[in-house]
Structure formats: structure tokens, C-alpha cells
Specification:
CATH architecture of the largest domain in chain A: Sandwich
Largest sheet of chain B: 4 strands, antiparallel
CATH topology of the largest domain in chain A: Jelly Rolls
Largest interface: A-B, 36 and 33 residues
CATH class of the largest domain in chain A: Mainly Beta
Strand content of chain A: 35-45%
Oligomer: heterodimer
Number of domains of chain A: 6
Helix content of chain B: 10-25%
Structural class of chain A: mainly beta
Number of helices of chain B: 1
CATH architecture of the largest domain in chain B: Sandwich
Shape of chain B: elongated
Order of helices and strands of chain B: HEEEEEEE
Strand order of the largest sheet of chain B: 4-3-6-7
Largest sheet of chain A: 11 strands, mixed
Distance between the termini of chain B: 77 Å
Shape of chain A: flat
CATH superfamily of the largest domain in chain B: Immunoglobulins
Helix content of chain A: under 10%
Number of strands of chain B: 7
Chain lengths: 867, 132
């Protein structure tokens, strides 16, 4: 029998190999699956990581002039982003959400303009919720014109809260983007509503909001808008301010009020003493420091600054020539000024032209189109602001409209419709002859807007001397085109003739830009028959060169003969050519040619009601007793900045006041002045140690392109005595007492002192302990005044004061201070003229039966003798 | 016996491979599914919708197509816990595309609503909105 032992081994081996191969195949497949699994996980992890890394932002949102949605989207991440979709939901429109497919890839760091991706008409007055979605799922939601889904934090305050009539208060409205989901707000626009709570038409927004809107408000950012609101009316008239954001949630708003009040003056009848209270009351100071023109008691000849009323005949400060330093008396105790707003207010007027020009000479005459029937004259007369011309002003022909705003700097202007014009005489009967003939150097400038309806008119007269219809007299004009020359259509022209129109000097300027405010200035040397023309669009850069012409005729005539009636015209030439133009200002020098730099300085003046035509330096300092500024470590310089004020248009109030108001008015004429204030905020206490002083300096900002600035101080006459009409600084509340004073009073007059009982109990003053005491500086001699009356009711040894209720005011009258103290001292017993330390003693009892007694240190007083 | 053993082992290995494939594909597909709530907005009765309704737009941002089977909206404001389920049979969304679902829901202003979307692979995607 043959053995198969060897075959079995082979068969077994074959099976074993097959099994092993099968197992290996399974293991290999498993590993392959595991590998695929890992790769898939890695790919998914990578996708998730990309998703987290992806970032983009909507940098800006704009609305084009064609009201199309625009904006910039930026890839702020490190990997490319594909913008997939934009959703736009217009607020107030139900059931409609617009979806735009973008499909735009942006490389890292790159941007894309939305207007290139979507064509969407946006209404600037409506609110939109928008959302951009990327391909990986990044979502960027934002709001345009509106935070419609959540309340925002809002704050509003009126500073100061109480102002005299015709003064302005500053309304500050702040919005915080505190939306919970980190949304960005775009084009945040305030919406302020004023409501008369008491009175009618109390508030009038003079300026604001500033800025008009915030293009972007990121999470946590604050938008602050400022309004300047003038309050007019009676005392206690009140206006409320309700502010929100455009298209915001209706219930989301902020509220404040402001009212008209006269200041509670600390002193009366020539006496000035600190505002004080009873022992139990809190300080009720208002922090007013008037600027005085007295230098008595100041350490280095500075002017006094304290709460005393304006007194004396007053002064008008010329900041161009003098640095004005005002300083308080030294502190009688450590004094804190709490954080808050400091408001420097000035009664002021300005020159008509910048210092660089006025230093040589101002215009011979100047007109601003600010009033209709100026000074209640007839026929829409406009009058000269220099005071050189006091009659024969410009009168109207037709009825040109006075537009109250919208001029080149948003000031008023006259609108001529192609039939209307203004004219004045330049003949033997008019005052213009006092300004001499047009026979030397001249400068004429005008701010004008030519209507595009004049586009096809070959000749558009703007300002012109000389009647075209007078039979051969000369002419001098600024016009568009030339009447008898068809080659100059549309060009700005400055030209004049001499020798009966036969000798022409003509500066040919650029083509006019219609419907834009243009500044045009022409200068001439008439005897030399030379002219220069300067033209520039408002807000488009100053004129940099002139268009020149020099007539080379040998028969030069040195006079432009324009003598006839109606010889100066605005918007007409006298022979039927009348213009569709707007004119805001017009100035003329009849004695010199202004230089390019002078004309540039005038061009750069913002003559608008809220402009910055005046620049002065304001410096607030803390000084020692000697008036020397404390070192920086002790807070010596509190504030130092160039501040600006608007041009004070003298004709603004002419119609209401029924008088001519021009530069020639005396400086003590109240109507010559405008009023403006400058406010800044301190966020920390300002502490003055005993003996230190507060000093304010006002100086010229060394900017010769600024209008010269003149301000009125310390005038006790006419209307200047009221707080609203003087120059002062109002500080935040001062503790423990108000600012110290430079008290001055007549030695023979009663002294009146005011106190307020701020409660909580009512009180009586008693004769026995209520005195005004003055002591020589060395403390060796003393005099006192006894109480005579409280609120006009006699106080004596047999009668206490009337009842002073909680919050009531007590006006305490003391006799002239004397030794011995008495009601009617003789002259020999009254305190001599001099400087003394003064104090008031107050004594009495309240309606709870408690006795009070308080000594008020007034500080140094100056006692004079008014013969 | 060897042939039988060999046949059994090959069959067993093949079954294991198929099971492994299924598990792998199912898990991976579920993991790779991703959905984004692009936009949710609320509307009062308009057009054919006679009640307050909600529009939900979702986008498939994963790498596979997915099928939305149900949306559940739950009011989680205070004690008002209205929960409504909206099943869908045609909720397929291919990758990179979006789909909007417009459903009636009795919302009120300031309601806080939870949204849950279910897919046929068993994923749930949630979002929360406060009605403006």
C-alpha cells in the first residue's frame, strides 16, 4: 500500500495558506477602512476648523447719491471666504424679506463692494435689518438706519439746564450699542423732538445734530450727538427734549428738559457777597463768575472775576491787541469743583473781515443779506454794515425773496428771479460820494449762486456800477459774460470802462459753475487800467491766482464816470438785463486793491451762523495766592485750547430792534452784541486749596485769518446787567461754598446779603446775632453793620424777621458798617475806605425750636466812598 | 473539512467587511452632515397665510446632501411652552443650497422660541430666536 502522508501535508499547507491569506485580506481591508475613516475625520475636522477660522466683516455701509445700497465687506480671516447670501428685511413691511445671492469669493485681507454684487434701492429714511451669510456658515447681521430689535442705552442732558431767554443750551444725546448679540449698527441717526411744556415756540435748534449720523457703531461704542438749542420766551417757559434714533423701537427714548430762568443773583444794590445758607442747609451755588474790568485786589493787575454783578460803565475787550486775564479772589477754605460742564459765555461782536485785512482797512461798505426791511425800512432795504453809509441804502425793485438759510455758509441770502433786483444811488445826492469816485484802487467781492436757468444767457449781470441805459456813461461790473461780446458766454467777468465807455479793462475768468455758491473778487487800479479777478467755489479750495488784464491804451483816463440815478445794481444792468441769481454777501473797498492772501483769508471765513470765523485761545489755570500758575503736578493748567465762535452778523437783529446795527455803533450799545458760549466737561474734581485762585485768560489765537473779536464786560447800564447779557464763566457746583468774591461796596450804603433756607425746617432770624463784620487785614480794628430788614420787614430788638420757609430766600439788609454798630451811624463812625476781611454772622431759630448760628467768611472786601 | 472551513472563513470575512462598510458610511455621513439657520423671520397674517407665521431658511453647508424630516418649534417663554412639530416629506437639500420653510405658529412679540430641525440621518440642529 502506497503511503499519502506527503500529500496530506501539501493539502494541509494549501488550506492553511488560503486561511491565512483570507485573514490577511480581512486585516488589510480593516486597516484600509480605518485609514479611510481617519481621513474622513481629518477632512471633517479640517472643515470645522476652516469654519471657525473664517471671518469677515461689513466695514462700512453707504447709501449712494442714487439711493443704492453700497458698502464694503472685508475678509478679516486667514482663509478665503465665499459670500453666499444677503438678506434684507425692511422694517415695517410685513411678510417680505429680500434674498440676494452673492456667490462672491474674497481672498484673505481683500474687500468687495456691495454695490458690485447687489442692486438694491434703499430709502434713507427707513430702517433695514440685513444679514450676510458665507458658504461655511459665518453670519454677519447688522442694522442700517435702525436698531429695530432691541432697546439701546440712551442718555440725554441739557447743559445748562436753565438759561436766560435768547441764550442757547447744549443738548447732548448719547447712544450706546449694547445689543446683546454683538450686532453692528450702521448709519445711526438721531431723532430729536422738542415739545413746549410751558410757553410757545420756546426751543429753536440753531445747530445740530453734530454729527448728523454715525456711519458705524460697533458693539460697546457710544455715539454722541450735540444740538445747540436757543431758548426764547418768558421766565419759567420750558421745553422738553425727546430723543431716539431713527427707526428705533418706539418705546426706546431719552428725555430731558430745559427752561428759561433768570439767575438768582447773590447780591443787590451794589453789594456782592457770597451765596450762603443757614447752618443746616446745603450749598445752593450756581458757580457764576462774571468778568469785571476792575483790577483792585488782584495780585498782578489781572481783572477781577467773581459772582458780583456787572458794575460801572463797562468795557469792551479787544482780544487782538490785549490778552485778558481774569482771576478770582483767593480761596478762604479748601474748595472743590465737582465734575461737570464749564461754560464760558461771551457778549461779543466781530469785525467784518479777518485781522489780516482789517489791520490795513476794512471795506468801504459791506452788505449781508440777513434782514428784510432792515431796521424796518421800506422796500426790502438792506443796509451797510460798516456804518459808512447810513442812508441811500440798497432798495428793492420787484420783491426779491429773503431766504433765511442755505447761503454759502448756511446764512441768509436774497433770491432774484430774473425780474427783481436791488439798487442804490451813486450820484451827487447819495452818501456813496463820500466814499470817493471810482477813480483809484478798488476791490469788489460777492458771494453768488447763478441759476442754471441762465445757462443759455450770454450776459448775466451780478453787481454793477453804471446804468447801461444812461447814454454813454462808464460801467464797472462783475458779471457772467459780456453784454456786447458774444465770445464770453458763461465766463466770469470783471470789467470796467473809462472815458465814456471807450476804454475797457476786462478780466476774463473761468466758465461759471451753475447752481453752486461762488466767491468772486475783482480788484482794480483804475488810473493804470489794471484788473485782477479771483474766482473760487465755496468749499472747493481758496482762489490761488488771479485772471489779469492791463489795458495798454495810451489815453488812460483815471475816472470811471458812472454818475446817474440807480447807479449800483445787484442782479440787473439798468437796461432790461436781469439775472436769476442768489446773493449772500457783497463788500467793496473804494481805496485799495486787496492782495491774493487777503482775498484768500476772506474766502476762508465761514460767515455762517454756526461757523468758526473767530479763533481765540482760552486758558484756565489754578494759581497760588500771588497769581502764579501752579506746577503741572498740582494741576496748574486746567484747560488750554483754541476755541471758536461764529461770525456775529450785525444786521441779524436789525429788523426786530427797528434800528441800524453796524460797526459804527458805540460799544456800550447792547444791540451791537451777539451771544455765544463754549462748553467743556471735566470728569474729575478740581480742588483748590486755601489761598489758591482760579484764573481765566483769553488771548488772540495768532490766526490772522480769524475775525477780530470784541467782548463786553462789567457794564451795569441798560440790558447788560442781566446775567444773560454779560460775559462770564459758569462752573459746575462748588463746595462747600461758592467761589470767593472781590466784594466792593459804598461805605455809606446799606449792604444787602442774600441767603437761602434749603430746609428741611422753616426759620427766623434774630436781631441779636445777625451782623456783618469787617476787620482790618492786620486784625487790629473792626466795624460791624446791624441787621435792619429781612425781605423788607424790619428786624429790631423788639421784632425778629418774618418766617423764612423751607427753600425760601432771605434778603438781609445791614446798616453801613460802623463803630459802634448802629442803624444810622454818623459819617465819623462809618468804616473808612480801604480793604478789609469780612464775615457775616447769622443767628436765629427754626420751627422745631432749635437755635442756629453760623459764621460765613466772605474774604477780602473793598470799601469805597462814592461821593 | 478544509474546504468547508475555507468557505466559512471567506463568507464570514465578507460579511464583516460589509458590516464595517455600513457602519463606517453611516457614521461618517452623519458626522459630515451640517446645516445652518440662515434666516428666521416672523410675519403676521398676509396673503394665503391667515395666521402668524414663521419663515425659516436653512442652508446645507455640509459636504453631503441631507433630508429635513421635521421642524419642531417650542415656545420657552415663561409658562407658555407651546410645541408644534412640522413633518416634511420633500425636505431634501443638496450641498451648498438652501431651502425655506414657511409654517404657521402663534408667536407674540418678545416670545423666546427654540427651533429644532431633524434630518433623516438622525441629526438635530437647534437655534433660538426672540420674536421682535
Amino acid at each position: 500500500m502506497r503511503s499519502h502522508r506527503g500529500l496530506s501535508a501539501v493539502v494541509g499547507t494549501v488550506f492553511l495558506v488560503a486561511v491565512v491569506l483570507g485573514a490577511l485580506s480581512y486585516v488589510s481591508y480593516s486597516l484600509d477602512v480605518m485609514g479611510n475613516f481617519s481621513e474622513s475625520l481629518i477632512a471633517e475636522e479640517s472643515r470645522q476648523k476652516d469654519k471657525q477660522t473664517e471671518a469677515f466683516e461689513v466695514s462700512t455701509i453707504d447709501v449712494t447719491t442714487a439711493n443704492k445700497l453700497d458698502g464694503i465687506v472685508k475678509n478679516t480671516g486667514e482663509i478665503p471666504v465665499e459670500l453666499k447670501t444677503l438678506y434684507i428685511d425692511e422694517q415695517g413691511v410685513n411678510d417680505v424679506v429680500q434674498k440676494f445671492t452673492l456667490n462672491e469669493a474674497i481672498a484673505p485681507g481683500n474687500t468687495v463692494n456691495l454695490i458690485d454684487l447687489v442692486d438694491f434701492d434703499i430709502d434713507p429714511t427707513k430702517g433695514y435689518n440685513m444679514k450676510v451669510v458665507s458658504g461655511r456658515g459665518e453670519v454677519n447681521a447688522f442694522f442700517v438706519n435702525s436698531p429695530s430689535t432691541e432697546n439701546l442705552q440712551m442718555y440725554i442732558s441739557a447743559i445748562p439746564e436753565y438759561v436766560p431767554t435768547s441764550f442757547t443750551t447744549t443738548v447732548l444725546y448719547s447712544v450706546v450699542n449694547n445689543m446683546s448679540n454683538g450686532n453692528v449698527l450702521y448709519n445711526v441717526t438721531p431723532d430729536l423732538t422738542m415739545t413746549d411744556e410751558i410757553g410757545t415756540s420756546v426751543g429753536n435748534i440753531r445747530n445740530g445734530p453734530t454729527p448728523n449720523s454715525y456711519p458705524t457703531l460697533n458693539p460697546g461704542d457710544i455715539a454722541t450727538f450735540e444740538y445747540s438749542v436757543q431758548l426764547s420766551g418768558e421766565v419759567d417757559d420750558m421745553v422738553s427734549f425727546n430723543a431716539t434714533v431713527l427707526n428705533g423701537i418706539p418705546s426706546n427714548w431719552a428725555y430731558t428738559e430745559a427752561s428759561i430762568q433768570e439767575v438768582e443773583e447773590a447780591t443787590q444794590a451794589g453789594t456782592s457777597i457770597e451765596s450762603v445758607g443757614l447752618a443746616s442747609e446745603e450749598n445752593n451755588s450756581i458757580g457764576i463768575l462774571y468778568f469785571h474790568d476792575q483790577t483792585v485786589l488782584t495780585p498782578n493787575g489781572e481783572y477781577q472775576m467773581d459772582a458780583g454783578d456787572p458794575s460801572g460803565s463797562g468795557s469792551t475787550g479787544d482780544v487782538v491787541t490785549t490778552t485778558y486775564e481774569f482771576i478770582t479772589a483767593n480761596m478762604t477754605a479748601e474748595t472743590d469743583v465737582i465734575p461737570g460742564y464749564w461754560n464760558a459765555s461771551f457778549a461779543y461782536y466781530t469785525h467784518l473781515v479777518p485781522k489780516s485785512v482789517s489791520d490795513i482797512s476794512g471795506p468801504s461798505f459791506a452788505f449781508s443779506m440777513q434782514c428784510e426791511d432792515c431796521a424796518s425800512t421800506a422796500n426790502n432795504q438792506i443796509y451797510d454794515l460798516t456804518g459808512n453809509i447810513t442812508s441811500h441804502d440798497f432798495v428793492e425793485s420787484g420783491d426779491p425773496d429773503l431766504i433765511s438759510s442755505g447761503g454759502p455758509h448756511d446764512q441768509a441770502y436774497y433770491e432774484y428771479d430774473g425780474d427783481e433786483y436791488h439798487y442804490a444811488e451813486w450820484d451827487t445826492n447819495s452818501q456813496y460820494l463820500d466814499e470817493a469816485w471810482l477813480d483809484g484802487e478798488t476791490t469788489t467781492m460777492i458771494w453768488v449762486r447763478v441759476d442754471s436757468a441762465e445757462n443759455n444767457d450770454s450776459y448775466v449781470p451780478i453787481i454793477r456800477w453804471g446804468d447801461e441805459d444812461d447814454g454813454g456813461d462808464d460801467e464797472y461790473e462783475i458779471a457772467i459774460g459780456e453784454r456786447d461780446d458774444s465770445g464770453d458766454e458763461g465766463k466770469v467777468m470783471f470789467r470796467y470802462t473809462a472815458k465814456d465807455e471807450n476804454d475797457e479793462t476786462e478780466c476774463e475768468g473761468p466758465l461759471i459753475t451753475y447752481d453752486k455758491w461762488i466767491f468772486i473778487a475783482g480788484t482794480a487800479d483804475i488810473p493804470d487800467e489794471e484788473c485782477h479777478l479771483y474766482v473760487a467755489e465755496i468749499d472747493d479750495g481758496e482762489p490761488s491766482a488771479s485772471y489779469v488784464d492791463v489795458n495798454n491804451a495810451n489815453d488812460k483816463d483815471d475816472t470811471v464816470d458812472i454818475d446817474d440815478t440807480q447807479d449800483i445794481r445787484i442782479a440787473a444792468d439798468g437796461r432790461g438785463d436781469r439775472s436769476i441769481v442768489d446773493v449772500a454777501m457783497f463788500m467793496h473797498w473804494n481805496d485799495r486793491m486787496l492782495s491774493l492772501s487777503e482775498i484768500q483769508d476772506i474766502y476762508n471765513v465761514d460767515y455762517g451762523p454756526t461757523g468758526d470765523a473767530v479763533s481765540v485761545d482760552l486758558l484756565l489755570e489754578k494759581t497760588d495766592d500771588d497769581g502764579d500758575t501752579l506746577p503741572p503736578g498740582q494741576g496748574g493748567t486746567m484747560f488750554s485750547q483754541t476755541i471758536t465762535f461764529p461770525y456775529a452778523d450785525l444786521s441779524e437783529d436789525a429788523e426786530a430792534e427797528n434800528k441800524r446795527i453796524d460797526l459804527s455803533l458805540p460799544n456800550d450799545d447792547y444791540d451791537k452784541y451777539s451771544f455765544a458760549n463754549y462748553t467743556y466737561y471735566t470728569s474729575a474734581n478740581q480742588t483748590f486749596n486755601e489761598g489758591e485762585r482760579f484764573k481765566l485768560s483769553l488771548s488772540w489765537a495768532s490766526d490772522d485769518s480769524s475775525l477780530p473779536f470784541y467782548f463786553r464786560i462789567d457794564d451795569s447800564d441798560s440790558q447788560f446787567t442781566q446775567w444773560k447779557d454779560s460775559s462770564y464763566i459758569q462752573t459746575p457746583p462748588v463746595y462747600p461754598d461758592d467761589w470767593p468774591t472781590f466784594t466792593s461796596f459804598d461805605r455809606t450804603e446799606d449792604v444787602i446779603y442774600r441767603a437761602q433756607n434749603s430746609g428741611p425746617d422753616g426759620a427766623y432770624f434774630t436781631y441779636a446775632g445777625t451782623r456783618l463784620l469787617v476787620t482790618t487785614v492786620d486784625g487790629t480794628e473792626s466795624w460791624a453793620g446791624v441787621v435792619k430788614e429781612v425781605n423788607g420787614v424790619t428786624v429790631s430788638t423788639t421784632q425778629d424777621s418774618e418766617y423764612i420757609p423751607d427753600q425760601g430766600m432771605a434778603e438781609i439788609t445791614f446798616s453801613p458798617v460802623s463803630d459802634p454798630p448802629q442803624t444810622n451811624p454818623s459819617d465819623g463812625e462809618i468804616v473808612p475806605v480801604g480793604q478789609y476781611n469780612a464775615a457775616v454772622f447769622l443767628s436765629g431759630y427754626d420751627d422745631e425750636g432749635e437755635v442756629f448760628s453760623r459764621t460765613i467768611n466772605i474774604g477780602t472786601v473793598n470799601i469805597y466812598d462814592n461821593p | 473539512m478544509g474546504v468547508m472551513l475555507l468557505g466559512w472563513s471567506q463568507t464570514s470575512i465578507l460579511e464583516q467587511k460589509q458590516e464595517m462598510d455600513e457602519v463606517f458610511n453611516t457614521r461618517m455621513n452623519k458626522i459630515n452632515e451640517d446645516l445652518l439657520y440662515e434666516n428666521i423671520w416672523f410675519a403676521s397674517p398676509a396673503g394665503i397665510m391667515t395666521d402668524n407665521h414663521v419663515n425659516v431658511t436653512v442652508s446645507n453647508i455640509g459636504i453631503l446632501g441631507l433630508n429635513v424630516t421635521q421642524i419642531q418649534i417650542t415656545n420657552v417663554t415663561g409658562t407658555n411652552n407651546t410645541e408644534l412639530n412640522y413633518p416634511f416629506t420633500d425636505g431634501g437639500i443638496v450641498t451648498s443650497q438652501s431651502m425655506s420653510f414657511n409654517v404657521t405658529y402663534p408667536w407674540d412679540s418678545a416670545d423666546e422660541l427654540d427651533f429644532i430641525i431633524f434630518t433623516d440621518r438622525g441629526n438635530q440642529f437647534t437655534s433660538q430666536e426672540i420674536v421682535p
